[in-house]
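Regression report. Comparing outputs from two consecutive submissions.

Submission 1:
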Amino acid sequence: MARDILGRSVMELEWNSPISVGELREELIRQYPELARLKTLAVAVNSEYAQDGNLLKEGDEVALIPPVSGG
Protein backbone atom coordinates (compact mmCIF):
# COMPACT_ATOMS: atom_id res chain seq x y z
CA MET A 1 0.00 0.00 0.00
CA ALA A 2 2.80 2.44 0.88
CA ARG A 3 4.59 1.45 -2.33
CA ASP A 4 1.47 2.37 -4.34
CA ILE A 5 1.26 5.78 -2.64
CA LEU A 6 4.96 6.53 -3.11
CA GLY A 7 4.98 5.19 -6.67
CA ARG A 8 8.12 3.15 -6.05
CA SER A 9 9.48 0.43 -3.81
CA VAL A 10 12.87 2.03 -3.15
CA MET A 11 13.89 5.64 -2.73
CA GLU A 12 17.03 7.34 -1.50
CA LEU A 13 16.86 10.45 0.67
CA GLU A 14 19.60 12.83 1.79
CA TRP A 15 19.51 15.23 4.76
CA ASN A 16 21.91 17.96 5.86
CA SER A 17 21.40 17.26 9.57
CA PRO A 18 20.35 14.34 11.76
CA ILE A 19 16.67 13.44 11.49
CA SER A 20 14.48 11.29 13.69
CA VAL A 21 12.14 8.56 12.51
CA GLY A 22 9.20 10.79 13.49
CA GLU A 23 10.57 13.73 11.49
CA LEU A 24 11.08 11.45 8.49
CA ARG A 25 7.49 10.19 8.82
CA GLU A 26 6.20 13.81 8.96
CA GLU A 27 8.28 14.80 5.92
CA LEU A 28 7.04 11.82 3.91
CA ILE A 29 3.43 12.65 4.82
CA ARG A 30 4.05 16.27 3.79
CA GLN A 31 5.37 15.09 0.41
CA TYR A 32 2.85 12.23 0.04
CA PRO A 33 -0.32 13.27 1.93
CA GLU A 34 -2.07 9.96 1.16
CA LEU A 35 0.33 8.26 3.61
CA ALA A 36 -1.65 9.90 6.41
CA ARG A 37 -4.52 7.52 5.58
CA LEU A 38 -2.39 4.63 6.90
CA LYS A 39 -3.29 4.92 10.57
CA THR A 40 -0.66 2.49 11.85
CA LEU A 41 2.30 3.01 9.54
CA ALA A 42 5.19 1.33 11.33
CA VAL A 43 8.83 2.09 10.55
CA ALA A 44 11.75 -0.31 10.67
CA VAL A 45 15.37 0.83 10.61
CA ASN A 46 17.96 -1.74 9.58
CA SER A 47 15.33 -4.52 9.88
CA GLU A 48 14.22 -3.60 13.42
CA TYR A 49 11.09 -1.71 14.44
CA ALA A 50 11.94 1.88 15.37
CA GLN A 51 10.29 4.52 17.54
CA ASP A 52 9.67 8.09 16.38
CA GLY A 53 12.48 9.38 18.62
CA ASN A 54 15.18 7.17 17.09
CA LEU A 55 17.76 9.16 15.13
CA LEU A 56 18.69 8.01 11.66
CA LYS A 57 22.32 7.71 10.62
CA GLU A 58 23.91 7.82 7.20
CA GLY A 59 23.45 4.49 5.46
CA ASP A 60 20.45 3.37 7.54
CA GLU A 61 17.88 1.35 5.65
CA VAL A 62 14.33 2.43 6.47
CA ALA A 63 11.25 0.35 5.66
CA LEU A 64 7.66 1.57 5.88
CA ILE A 65 5.35 -1.15 7.15
CA PRO A 66 1.66 -0.46 6.47
CA PRO A 67 -1.11 -1.97 8.59
CA VAL A 68 -1.60 -5.69 8.14
CA SER A 69 -5.01 -7.29 8.29
CA GLY A 70 -5.87 -10.90 8.66
CA GLY A 71 -7.49 -13.37 10.89
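Submission 2:
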Amino acid sequence: MKSISFYLLAVTCILQACKSGPFNLLKPASPHQQYERKLVNAGLDQNKMGSSWISKANSLLQNANGIKVPYKETGYFAADKIGGASFKFSLQRGQLLTVRLTKQSVSNFSIYMDIWEQKENGEFKVLAFSDSLGTELQLEAKRSGDYFLRLQPELLASGSYTLELAVGPSLGYPLKAVNRKQIQSFFGVGRDNDTRRHEGIDIFSSFRTPVIAVAEGTVTRVNENNLGGKVVWFRPKGKDYTLYYAHLDEQIANTGQEVMLGDTLGLMGNTGNAKTTPPHLHFGIYTSDSAVDPLPFVDPLIPLMPSINSDITKLNATLRTVNRTIEISDNQQLINPEKLKQNTVVRVLAASNNFYKVELPNGKSGYVASKSLVETKSLSTRKITNVSQSLLDSPNLAAGVKANLALGQTVNVMGVFEDFQLVSTADGEVGWLSLK
Protein backbone atom coordinates (compact mmCIF):
# COMPACT_ATOMS: atom_id res chain seq x y z
CA MET A 1 0.00 0.00 0.00
CA LYS A 2 2.91 2.35 0.83
CA SER A 3 4.47 1.72 -2.58
CA ILE A 4 1.18 2.54 -4.33
CA SER A 5 0.79 5.75 -2.33
CA PHE A 6 4.35 6.75 -3.14
CA TYR A 7 3.74 6.06 -6.84
CA LEU A 8 0.59 8.21 -6.89
CA LEU A 9 2.41 10.98 -5.04
CA ALA A 10 5.23 10.86 -7.59
CA VAL A 11 2.79 10.94 -10.50
CA THR A 12 0.94 13.85 -8.91
CA CYS A 13 4.17 15.82 -8.58
CA ILE A 14 5.03 15.16 -12.22
CA LEU A 15 1.53 16.18 -13.28
CA GLN A 16 1.88 19.44 -11.40
CA ALA A 17 5.04 20.01 -13.41
CA CYS A 18 3.02 19.14 -16.53
CA LYS A 19 0.71 22.02 -15.70
CA SER A 20 3.31 24.66 -14.97
CA GLY A 21 6.87 23.36 -15.24
CA PRO A 22 9.44 24.54 -17.79
CA PHE A 23 9.85 22.32 -20.85
CA ASN A 24 11.79 23.00 -24.01
CA LEU A 25 8.90 22.34 -26.40
CA LEU A 26 7.71 23.56 -29.74
CA LYS A 27 4.65 25.72 -29.26
CA PRO A 28 1.64 23.35 -29.33
CA ALA A 29 -1.61 24.06 -31.13
CA SER A 30 -3.80 23.85 -28.04
CA PRO A 31 -3.65 23.45 -24.24
CA HIS A 32 -4.67 19.80 -24.75
CA GLN A 33 -1.67 19.20 -27.01
CA GLN A 34 0.56 21.05 -24.58
CA TYR A 35 -0.55 18.83 -21.70
CA GLU A 36 -0.14 15.66 -23.80
CA ARG A 37 3.34 16.71 -24.92
CA LYS A 38 4.39 17.34 -21.33
CA LEU A 39 3.15 13.89 -20.36
CA VAL A 40 5.41 12.46 -23.05
CA ASN A 41 8.38 14.59 -21.97
CA ALA A 42 7.86 13.47 -18.37
CA GLY A 43 7.88 9.83 -19.51
CA LEU A 44 4.30 9.24 -18.35
CA ASP A 45 3.30 7.93 -21.76
CA GLN A 46 5.31 4.80 -20.89
CA ASN A 47 3.08 3.83 -17.95
CA LYS A 48 -0.52 2.64 -17.92
CA MET A 49 -2.00 5.90 -16.67
CA GLY A 50 -0.35 8.24 -19.15
CA SER A 51 -0.75 5.97 -22.17
CA SER A 52 -4.42 5.42 -21.30
CA TRP A 53 -5.00 9.19 -21.19
CA ILE A 54 -3.42 9.64 -24.62
CA SER A 55 -5.36 6.70 -26.02
CA LYS A 56 -8.57 8.09 -24.53
CA ALA A 57 -7.99 11.41 -26.29
CA ASN A 58 -8.02 9.66 -29.65
CA SER A 59 -10.91 7.28 -28.94
CA LEU A 60 -13.16 10.12 -27.75
CA LEU A 61 -13.32 11.57 -31.26
CA GLN A 62 -13.89 8.16 -32.85
CA ASN A 63 -16.72 7.30 -30.44
CA ALA A 64 -18.55 10.61 -29.98
CA ASN A 65 -22.13 10.55 -28.72
CA GLY A 66 -24.64 12.03 -31.17
CA ILE A 67 -26.64 14.97 -29.83
CA LYS A 68 -28.86 17.76 -31.12
CA VAL A 69 -28.04 21.34 -30.26
CA PRO A 70 -28.95 23.19 -28.14
CA TYR A 71 -27.80 20.71 -25.54
CA LYS A 72 -27.10 20.72 -21.81
CA GLU A 73 -25.69 18.14 -19.44
CA THR A 74 -24.22 17.91 -15.96
CA GLY A 75 -21.58 15.25 -15.51
CA TYR A 76 -18.83 14.05 -13.21
CA PHE A 77 -15.23 13.08 -13.84
CA ALA A 78 -13.77 10.70 -11.25
CA ALA A 79 -10.08 10.85 -10.30
CA ASP A 80 -9.74 7.05 -10.46
CA LYS A 81 -11.05 6.91 -14.05
CA ILE A 82 -9.49 7.97 -17.33
CA GLY A 83 -12.48 10.16 -18.17
CA GLY A 84 -13.70 12.34 -20.99
CA ALA A 85 -16.75 13.15 -23.05
CA SER A 86 -17.30 13.76 -26.75
CA PHE A 87 -20.25 14.87 -28.84
CA LYS A 88 -21.18 14.83 -32.51
CA PHE A 89 -23.71 17.38 -33.77
CA SER A 90 -24.79 19.17 -36.93
CA LEU A 91 -24.50 22.88 -37.70
CA GLN A 92 -25.60 24.97 -40.66
CA ARG A 93 -23.21 27.34 -42.35
CA GLY A 94 -23.48 30.75 -40.72
CA GLN A 95 -24.60 29.52 -37.31
CA LEU A 96 -22.61 30.56 -34.27
CA LEU A 97 -21.96 27.81 -31.74
CA THR A 98 -21.30 28.90 -28.16
CA VAL A 99 -19.98 26.29 -25.73
CA ARG A 100 -20.06 27.11 -22.02
CA LEU A 101 -18.42 24.96 -19.38
CA THR A 102 -18.67 25.46 -15.62
CA LYS A 103 -16.75 23.29 -13.16
CA GLN A 104 -17.16 22.51 -9.48
CA SER A 105 -14.33 20.90 -7.54
CA VAL A 106 -12.30 21.29 -4.38
CA SER A 107 -9.27 21.79 -6.61
CA ASN A 108 -9.38 24.00 -9.69
CA PHE A 109 -8.79 21.13 -12.10
CA SER A 110 -8.48 21.60 -15.86
CA ILE A 111 -10.85 20.24 -18.48
CA TYR A 112 -9.45 20.57 -21.98
CA MET A 113 -12.09 21.55 -24.53
CA ASP A 114 -11.77 21.63 -28.32
CA ILE A 115 -13.95 21.49 -31.46
CA TRP A 116 -13.12 19.35 -34.50
CA GLU A 117 -14.27 18.46 -37.97
CA GLN A 118 -13.69 15.20 -39.81
CA LYS A 119 -12.24 15.43 -43.29
CA GLU A 120 -13.25 13.21 -46.20
CA ASN A 121 -10.24 10.94 -45.62
CA GLY A 122 -11.41 10.31 -42.05
CA GLU A 123 -8.77 12.46 -40.37
CA PHE A 124 -9.82 14.95 -37.69
CA LYS A 125 -8.87 18.62 -37.83
CA VAL A 126 -9.08 20.90 -34.81
CA LEU A 127 -11.03 24.11 -35.48
CA ALA A 128 -11.12 25.86 -32.11
CA PHE A 129 -10.08 25.32 -28.51
CA SER A 130 -10.52 27.03 -25.18
CA ASP A 131 -7.78 28.51 -23.05
CA SER A 132 -6.53 26.77 -19.91
CA LEU A 133 -9.51 28.05 -17.92
CA GLY A 134 -11.83 26.34 -20.38
CA THR A 135 -15.01 28.30 -19.63
CA GLU A 136 -16.32 29.39 -23.05
CA LEU A 137 -15.64 28.60 -26.69
CA GLN A 138 -17.24 29.97 -29.88
CA LEU A 139 -17.19 28.77 -33.45
CA GLU A 140 -18.82 30.12 -36.60
CA ALA A 141 -19.76 27.23 -38.87
CA LYS A 142 -17.95 27.65 -42.19
CA ARG A 143 -19.86 24.77 -43.74
CA SER A 144 -23.01 22.77 -43.12
CA GLY A 145 -22.31 19.35 -41.65
CA ASP A 146 -21.14 17.47 -38.58
CA TYR A 147 -18.85 18.84 -35.89
CA PHE A 148 -17.25 17.27 -32.80
CA LEU A 149 -16.68 18.61 -29.30
CA ARG A 150 -14.19 16.89 -26.98
CA LEU A 151 -13.84 17.33 -23.22
CA GLN A 152 -11.00 15.66 -21.34
CA PRO A 153 -9.93 16.31 -17.75
CA GLU A 154 -6.36 16.20 -16.58
CA LEU A 155 -5.15 13.06 -14.81
CA LEU A 156 -5.97 12.40 -11.14
CA ALA A 157 -8.57 15.16 -11.07
CA SER A 158 -12.19 14.88 -10.06
CA GLY A 159 -15.18 17.17 -10.08
CA SER A 160 -18.51 17.91 -11.66
CA TYR A 161 -19.20 20.06 -14.69
CA THR A 162 -22.14 21.56 -16.55
CA LEU A 163 -21.88 21.85 -20.30
CA GLU A 164 -24.10 23.98 -22.56
CA LEU A 165 -24.04 24.07 -26.35
CA ALA A 166 -26.09 26.98 -27.71
CA VAL A 167 -26.64 27.98 -31.34
CA GLY A 168 -27.68 31.26 -32.89
CA PRO A 169 -26.92 33.56 -35.84
CA SER A 170 -23.37 34.77 -36.46
CA LEU A 171 -24.63 38.15 -37.77
CA GLY A 172 -27.14 40.67 -36.53
CA TYR A 173 -30.65 41.15 -37.93
CA PRO A 174 -31.04 43.54 -40.92
CA LEU A 175 -33.86 45.51 -39.24
CA LYS A 176 -33.84 47.25 -35.86
CA ALA A 177 -37.14 45.64 -34.84
CA VAL A 178 -36.57 41.89 -34.79
CA ASN A 179 -39.50 39.73 -35.90
CA ARG A 180 -39.02 36.22 -37.33
CA LYS A 181 -42.48 36.35 -38.96
CA GLN A 182 -41.20 39.09 -41.30
CA ILE A 183 -39.16 36.48 -43.18
CA GLN A 184 -41.68 35.08 -45.68
CA SER A 185 -39.68 33.91 -48.68
CA PHE A 186 -36.72 31.60 -48.33
CA PHE A 187 -33.54 30.56 -50.10
CA GLY A 188 -33.86 28.12 -52.99
CA VAL A 189 -37.56 28.46 -53.81
CA GLY A 190 -38.50 28.66 -57.48
CA ARG A 191 -38.72 31.96 -59.34
CA ASP A 192 -40.01 32.85 -62.85
CA ASN A 193 -41.74 29.50 -63.43
CA ASP A 194 -38.83 27.64 -61.83
CA THR A 195 -36.32 28.99 -64.34
CA ARG A 196 -34.16 30.24 -61.47
CA ARG A 197 -33.87 29.87 -57.71
CA HIS A 198 -34.28 32.52 -55.04
CA GLU A 199 -30.78 33.46 -53.91
CA GLY A 200 -31.70 34.98 -50.57
CA ILE A 201 -34.49 35.63 -48.09
CA ASP A 202 -37.19 38.33 -48.23
CA ILE A 203 -37.88 40.34 -45.08
CA PHE A 204 -41.13 42.33 -45.18
CA SER A 205 -41.91 45.54 -43.31
CA SER A 206 -43.40 48.98 -43.90
CA PHE A 207 -42.27 51.27 -46.73
CA ARG A 208 -38.95 53.06 -46.06
CA THR A 209 -38.12 51.02 -42.96
CA PRO A 210 -34.38 51.50 -42.28
CA VAL A 211 -32.26 48.47 -43.17
CA ILE A 212 -29.08 48.21 -41.14
CA ALA A 213 -25.59 46.72 -41.15
CA VAL A 214 -25.54 43.27 -39.52
CA ALA A 215 -21.86 43.58 -38.62
CA GLU A 216 -18.89 45.93 -38.77
CA GLY A 217 -17.48 46.20 -42.28
CA THR A 218 -17.13 48.07 -45.54
CA VAL A 219 -19.68 49.07 -48.19
CA THR A 220 -18.11 47.74 -51.37
CA ARG A 221 -20.64 48.96 -53.95
CA VAL A 222 -23.81 51.03 -54.25
CA ASN A 223 -25.60 50.65 -57.61
CA GLU A 224 -28.80 49.66 -59.43
CA ASN A 225 -29.72 46.59 -61.49
CA ASN A 226 -32.85 45.15 -63.14
CA LEU A 227 -33.57 42.47 -60.55
CA GLY A 228 -32.56 44.15 -57.30
CA GLY A 229 -33.32 47.75 -58.17
CA LYS A 230 -31.43 49.98 -55.79
CA VAL A 231 -28.89 47.80 -53.99
CA VAL A 232 -26.06 47.99 -51.46
CA TRP A 233 -23.16 45.50 -51.31
CA PHE A 234 -21.44 45.15 -47.96
CA ARG A 235 -18.42 43.11 -46.81
CA PRO A 236 -18.32 42.24 -43.07
CA LYS A 237 -14.92 42.67 -41.48
CA GLY A 238 -12.81 39.50 -41.57
CA LYS A 239 -15.35 37.47 -43.57
CA ASP A 240 -15.00 35.72 -46.92
CA TYR A 241 -18.45 36.64 -48.23
CA THR A 242 -20.41 39.73 -49.32
CA LEU A 243 -23.89 40.79 -48.20
CA TYR A 244 -26.48 42.00 -50.71
CA TYR A 245 -29.31 44.41 -49.78
CA ALA A 246 -31.83 44.79 -52.62
CA HIS A 247 -35.17 46.48 -53.56
CA LEU A 248 -34.27 49.61 -51.56
CA ASP A 249 -36.30 52.76 -51.99
CA GLU A 250 -33.26 54.82 -51.08
CA GLN A 251 -29.57 54.06 -50.65
CA ILE A 252 -27.96 55.91 -47.75
CA ALA A 253 -24.53 54.29 -47.51
CA ASN A 254 -21.76 55.19 -49.97
CA THR A 255 -19.19 53.01 -51.73
CA GLY A 256 -16.10 52.61 -49.57
CA GLN A 257 -17.86 53.68 -46.38
CA GLU A 258 -16.79 51.97 -43.14
CA VAL A 259 -19.88 51.05 -41.12
CA MET A 260 -20.58 49.64 -37.67
CA LEU A 261 -23.17 47.14 -36.54
CA GLY A 262 -26.56 48.87 -36.62
CA ASP A 263 -25.64 51.68 -39.04
CA THR A 264 -28.35 52.43 -41.61
CA LEU A 265 -27.49 51.35 -45.16
CA GLY A 266 -30.75 52.27 -46.87
CA LEU A 267 -34.55 52.41 -46.70
CA MET A 268 -36.80 49.50 -47.61
CA GLY A 269 -38.78 49.67 -50.86
CA ASN A 270 -39.84 47.58 -53.85
CA THR A 271 -37.55 48.70 -56.66
CA GLY A 272 -36.30 46.42 -59.43
CA ASN A 273 -38.44 43.39 -60.19
CA ALA A 274 -40.34 43.84 -56.89
CA LYS A 275 -42.53 46.70 -58.15
CA THR A 276 -45.70 44.60 -57.83
CA THR A 277 -44.91 43.29 -54.34
CA PRO A 278 -45.21 44.84 -50.88
CA PRO A 279 -42.09 46.63 -49.63
CA HIS A 280 -39.41 44.18 -48.51
CA LEU A 281 -35.67 43.65 -48.25
CA HIS A 282 -34.10 40.96 -50.36
CA PHE A 283 -31.10 39.88 -48.27
CA GLY A 284 -28.45 37.66 -49.86
CA ILE A 285 -24.99 36.32 -49.12
CA TYR A 286 -22.46 35.60 -51.87
CA THR A 287 -19.13 33.80 -51.68
CA SER A 288 -16.55 33.63 -54.46
CA ASP A 289 -18.34 30.48 -55.69
CA SER A 290 -22.07 31.05 -55.30
CA ALA A 291 -24.93 32.29 -53.19
CA VAL A 292 -25.47 30.61 -49.80
CA ASP A 293 -28.54 30.43 -47.59
CA PRO A 294 -28.49 33.59 -45.45
CA LEU A 295 -31.10 32.44 -42.92
CA PRO A 296 -28.73 30.69 -40.49
CA PHE A 297 -26.54 33.84 -40.48
CA VAL A 298 -29.37 36.14 -39.28
CA ASP A 299 -32.19 33.91 -37.99
CA PRO A 300 -33.51 35.53 -34.78
CA LEU A 301 -35.37 32.35 -33.76
CA ILE A 302 -32.96 30.93 -31.19
CA PRO A 303 -34.00 27.59 -29.66
CA LEU A 304 -34.19 27.49 -25.87
CA MET A 305 -31.65 25.60 -23.82
CA PRO A 306 -33.22 22.39 -22.47
CA SER A 307 -33.45 21.89 -18.73
CA ILE A 308 -31.95 18.98 -16.80
CA ASN A 309 -34.73 17.01 -15.16
CA SER A 310 -32.74 13.89 -14.19
CA ASP A 311 -31.41 13.47 -10.65
CA ILE A 312 -27.81 14.70 -10.66
CA THR A 313 -27.11 13.04 -7.29
CA LYS A 314 -26.82 9.80 -9.27
CA LEU A 315 -23.72 10.99 -11.15
CA ASN A 316 -20.90 8.40 -11.05
CA ALA A 317 -23.29 5.94 -9.39
CA THR A 318 -23.69 2.32 -10.47
CA LEU A 319 -27.31 1.66 -11.42
CA ARG A 320 -29.21 -1.10 -13.19
CA THR A 321 -32.00 -1.19 -15.74
CA VAL A 322 -35.42 -1.73 -14.26
CA ASN A 323 -37.37 -2.69 -17.40
CA ARG A 324 -37.34 -6.09 -19.08
CA THR A 325 -35.56 -4.52 -22.06
CA ILE A 326 -34.53 -0.91 -22.55
CA GLU A 327 -32.84 0.97 -25.34
CA ILE A 328 -29.42 2.55 -25.29
CA SER A 329 -28.31 4.84 -28.09
CA ASP A 330 -25.53 7.23 -29.02
CA ASN A 331 -28.19 9.94 -29.34
CA GLN A 332 -30.40 11.41 -26.62
CA GLN A 333 -33.37 10.99 -28.96
CA LEU A 334 -32.77 7.19 -28.89
CA ILE A 335 -31.99 6.77 -32.58
CA ASN A 336 -30.54 3.37 -33.65
CA PRO A 337 -31.11 1.83 -30.21
CA GLU A 338 -29.42 -1.25 -28.81
CA LYS A 339 -31.41 -3.52 -26.51
CA LEU A 340 -30.23 -4.09 -22.95
CA LYS A 341 -31.42 -6.94 -20.74
CA GLN A 342 -33.30 -6.29 -17.54
CA ASN A 343 -30.98 -5.56 -14.56
CA THR A 344 -28.03 -4.59 -16.80
CA VAL A 345 -25.44 -2.68 -14.77
CA VAL A 346 -24.39 0.80 -15.94
CA ARG A 347 -22.39 3.71 -14.54
CA VAL A 348 -23.94 7.18 -14.80
CA LEU A 349 -21.64 9.64 -16.56
CA ALA A 350 -23.96 12.62 -16.98
CA ALA A 351 -27.55 13.84 -16.77
CA SER A 352 -29.29 15.63 -19.65
CA ASN A 353 -32.97 16.51 -19.86
CA ASN A 354 -34.84 13.29 -18.99
CA PHE A 355 -31.90 11.05 -19.87
CA TYR A 356 -28.77 9.68 -18.30
CA LYS A 357 -25.62 9.24 -20.31
CA VAL A 358 -24.27 5.93 -19.09
CA GLU A 359 -21.27 3.69 -19.57
CA LEU A 360 -21.60 -0.07 -19.91
CA PRO A 361 -19.01 -2.36 -18.31
CA ASN A 362 -17.47 -2.92 -21.76
CA GLY A 363 -16.76 0.83 -22.08
CA LYS A 364 -19.53 1.67 -24.55
CA SER A 365 -21.54 4.76 -23.67
CA GLY A 366 -24.99 5.98 -24.64
CA TYR A 367 -28.25 7.46 -23.41
CA VAL A 368 -31.15 5.85 -21.57
CA ALA A 369 -34.29 7.37 -20.07
CA SER A 370 -33.55 8.21 -16.44
CA LYS A 371 -36.78 6.54 -15.32
CA SER A 372 -35.41 3.22 -16.66
CA LEU A 373 -32.65 3.02 -14.02
CA VAL A 374 -32.69 2.16 -10.31
CA GLU A 375 -30.07 1.59 -7.63
CA THR A 376 -28.17 -1.71 -7.61
CA LYS A 377 -29.75 -3.22 -4.50
CA SER A 378 -29.73 -6.96 -3.92
CA LEU A 379 -31.95 -8.83 -6.39
CA SER A 380 -31.37 -12.35 -5.13
CA THR A 381 -28.74 -14.58 -3.55
CA ARG A 382 -26.43 -17.08 -5.19
CA LYS A 383 -24.65 -20.01 -3.56
CA ILE A 384 -21.22 -20.91 -4.85
CA THR A 385 -21.43 -24.46 -6.19
CA ASN A 386 -17.90 -24.82 -7.54
CA VAL A 387 -14.93 -25.77 -5.40
CA SER A 388 -13.52 -22.33 -6.09
CA GLN A 389 -15.16 -19.41 -7.92
CA SER A 390 -13.14 -16.34 -8.95
CA LEU A 391 -14.54 -12.91 -8.11
CA LEU A 392 -13.40 -10.73 -11.04
CA ASP A 393 -12.86 -6.97 -11.21
CA SER A 394 -14.69 -6.69 -14.56
CA PRO A 395 -17.09 -8.87 -16.59
CA ASN A 396 -14.37 -10.60 -18.55
CA LEU A 397 -12.82 -14.05 -18.02
CA ALA A 398 -9.38 -12.52 -18.48
CA ALA A 399 -10.00 -9.88 -15.79
CA GLY A 400 -8.10 -9.63 -12.54
CA VAL A 401 -9.18 -11.81 -9.63
CA LYS A 402 -10.29 -9.88 -6.54
CA ALA A 403 -11.00 -12.93 -4.41
CA ASN A 404 -11.61 -16.69 -4.57
CA LEU A 405 -15.01 -17.62 -3.21
CA ALA A 406 -15.36 -20.90 -1.32
CA LEU A 407 -17.80 -23.72 -2.04
CA GLY A 408 -21.13 -23.06 -0.32
CA GLN A 409 -20.49 -19.33 0.19
CA THR A 410 -23.52 -17.11 -0.47
CA VAL A 411 -23.35 -13.79 -2.31
CA ASN A 412 -25.91 -11.10 -3.16
CA VAL A 413 -26.66 -10.59 -6.87
CA MET A 414 -26.80 -6.86 -7.71
CA GLY A 415 -27.15 -6.89 -11.50
CA VAL A 416 -25.98 -8.48 -14.74
CA PHE A 417 -24.00 -7.78 -17.88
CA GLU A 418 -23.95 -10.28 -20.71
CA ASP A 419 -22.83 -13.62 -19.19
CA PHE A 420 -21.79 -12.20 -15.82
CA GLN A 421 -23.43 -11.21 -12.53
CA LEU A 422 -22.38 -8.29 -10.33
CA VAL A 423 -22.32 -9.61 -6.75
CA SER A 424 -21.35 -8.53 -3.26
CA THR A 425 -20.02 -10.78 -0.52
CA ALA A 426 -20.92 -10.75 3.17
CA ASP A 427 -17.81 -8.68 3.94
CA GLY A 428 -18.70 -6.05 1.29
CA GLU A 429 -16.41 -7.14 -1.55
CA VAL A 430 -18.03 -6.35 -4.94
CA GLY A 431 -17.09 -8.03 -8.21
CA TRP A 432 -18.22 -10.14 -11.15
CA LEU A 433 -19.05 -13.83 -11.37
CA SER A 434 -19.30 -15.77 -14.59
CA LEU A 435 -22.58 -17.53 -15.31
CA LYS A 436 -20.76 -20.25 -17.23
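Expected: both submissions complete independently.
Actual: both completed, but the second showed a warning that disappeared on reload.
Relevant detail on submission 2: The two ends are 34 Å apart (CA to CA).
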